[in-house]
Design a protein that fits this description.
This protein is an alpha+beta fold. It is about 55% helix and about 15% strand. The chain has a domain of about 60 residues. The protein has a 3-stranded antiparallel beta sheet with strand order 2-1-3. The longest helix has 14 residues. About 25% of the residues are buried.
């Protein structure tokens, strides 16, 4: 069986992906913070738009967690600390 051109293109694309060393700032769901509090926190700390913060909060609620920011560790760690100071569980992964 001959490989289709589609698979060749996909393989070339995968070979072109480079690891960036970026980290994720992940926020976790809980049973005590309101949607409004989490949205406000993401707007204030992560500089999300209201819509972006609302979408992340919905994902956090239904999926249990959401990566709310990607970047280097030194940038994300203070954001994680500020989020945790507001009573919201977060980790840099």
């Amino acid at each position: 069986m001959q490989a289709s051109p589609f698979w060749k293109e996909e393989t070339e694309l995968l070979d072109a992906i480079v690891t960036t060393g970026a980290f994720d700032l992940v926020v976790f769901n809980d049973n005590h913070n309101t949607f409004e509090h989490v949205i406000e926190t993401l707007v204030d700390i992560c500089k999300h738009t209201a819509l972006q913060a609302e979408q992340c909060t919905t994902l956090i609620h239904y999926k249990g967690k959401c990566s709310v920011k990607v970047g280097d560790f030194d940038t994300l760690a203070p954001m994680r600390n500020a989020i945790c100071l507001r009573g919201i569980s977060a980790e840099v992964q």
